[in-house]
Amino acid sequence: MTATLRLALAQVNPTVGDLAGNAAMVREWSARAAEAGAHIVAFPEMMLTGYPVEDLVFRQSFVEASQQALVRLAADLAADGLGDLAVIVGFLDADGPARLGADSTSPVGPRDSLALLHRGVVAAHYHKHHLPNYGVFDEDRYFVPGDTLTVVRAQWADGSQADVALTICEDIWQAGGPFAVAASARVGLVININGSPYELNKDDVRLPLVQRRAAEAGAAVAYVNMIGGQDELTFDGDSMIVAADGTLLARGPQFHQALLVHDLHLPEADPDAPVGHLGTMRVARIPLTTSWATPEGPAADAGIADRLGDEAEVWNALVMGLRDYVRKNGAKSVLLGLSGGIDSSVVAAIAVDALGAEHVVGVSMPSGHSSQHSRDDAAEMARLTGLDYRVEPIQHMVDAFLSNLNLSGLAVENLQARVRAVILMALSNQEGHLVLTTGNKSELAVGYSTLYGDSVGAFNPLKDVPKTLVWKLAHWRNTVGEVIPESSITKPPSAELRPGQLDTDSLPPYDQLDAILAGYVDGDQGRDELVAEGHDPALVDRILRLVDGAEYKRRQSAPGTKISFKAFGRDRRLPITNRWRES
């Protein structure tokens, strides 16, 4: 005998700290799942609190608010007439004080948890077992790992039963642990709820990963991930269901909210399935008081959404990251310096896609060194997108400074950038716009920017985008619909802070620069490794000096959307005061 489970995966966009709003979202999407005839609906990791909550974990008031919101949510779902629906939701739990100081190995403390809500109560819960402590993750700082795999047994009106194991995010990224124990427990399905941040091509990694865990568990695996932006992170969804034999049954879209409803035929629960300690974890079996009806009519099939190409993937991440940063922080519009160059043009296009042209202000601030073609490109960009375009010449302001200060060379170049920053911040203060800065990852890496000048801003969409990828994104976006002037893409890049200036006056060609940066910054390669790959030794030495010397600038830079394996900020943490040099 098999049991037909109609499972719903809610791929949604919670907000950190908005417990009431997140709970309302659970109720709304649970109602949709119930309307579709689902027996179980699963929401992402830390759904109630948003993810990641970082040091909010250490506030007892926040922990208690999460726990109380969970109890209220269970009652509210029942009051909504959804009591028979099993709702799996991530939340912040705790069974002891925050883990600080000498007692950090205490077996109790904050927990990254999920709860199964049913008939107005918390029917089961599970604490995350594997805690990631790499890249953007610091979960060993915050949480105590769980040591018990929760297995719930559901029953259908025809008497069939099925066992479902509950797991959280990192539990699926490591072999052994919950999935191996699930195999010993003879479950038919493992549900894994996630807050898995986006990086380029991560979707290519997820499917083989879920297939490996399905083989390890000997069971179907349902993987649900959130979408949305949270500071530097974005979450791309890509939820999926994989059969025990590795067959992909359903897969959600990237960067869009979705409810995946799919029928699974699960094996009959083994009445003699073992309990107690099975390998590395204890198994807790929870019977659910269900008497579900077998779905009638056509089987529910969530389908398999198409995958996005690389540039489309990155563009969607950058748009979502900016949109959610602006909206979740209560802003309505953005402002940027629109020079006519490739970087500011791409940022403007991202902003228009994210917020609508009516919420984007582009300011051209020509100096005496600004070329006419750059001015024309900025104006054409505004025409193509429909954004609010303004022109504020700065030469008279620069001259006023120079009449009172004896400056020359680089100081005069930086003065122009800082005058522009003053204008942008003044307009921001006057009109309430959030300022975007437009530097790319290559420039941030080598310090090719003016501190308190072109680096000023509240958010930087291109912070993790190398210059060579900026060009690719511009070409791709114009294939969807032209918004970036072709001459902005094809002309040699220049800061236009002195006569005839080009980026290549200070930097090597960007294809050479980005190749070295990819090895040194993203790959943590040393000098000898980079030279062994064929890079010119003198150029490697020069670039590494620039990168090492710019750490103080990066520490003061605006946050920006992470798209790579190693972004500046949370991923890469180096001391500013540091005498180690590759040699």
Taking the sheet with the most strands, its summary is: 8 strands, mixed
Helical segment count: 18
Strand content: 15-25%
Number of DSSP strands? 20
- Radius of gyration, taken over Cα atoms and rounded to an integer in Å: 27 Å
In a nutshell, what does this entry contain?
The protein is of the alpha/beta class and 583 residues long. The chain is 36% helix and 20% strand. The chain is built from 18 helices and 20 strands.
Give an overview of the whole structure.
With 583 residues, this protein is an alpha/beta fold. Helices cover 36% and strands 20% of the residues. The chain contains 18 helices and 20 strands. The protein has an eight-stranded mixed sheet. Helix 1 links the parallel strand 1 and strand 2. Helix 5 runs parallel beside helix 6, helix 7 packs across helix 8 and helix 8 crosses helix 13. The longest helix has 22 residues. The protein is elongated. The model has no long low-confidence stretch (mean pLDDT 92). Belongs to the NAD synthetase family. GO terms for molecular function: ATP binding; glutaminase activity; NAD+ synthase (glutamine-hydrolyzing) activity; NAD+ synthase activity; nitrilase activity. Keywords: ATP-binding, Ligase, NAD, Nucleotide-binding. It comes from Catellatospora chokoriensis. This is Glutamine-dependent NAD(+) synthetase.
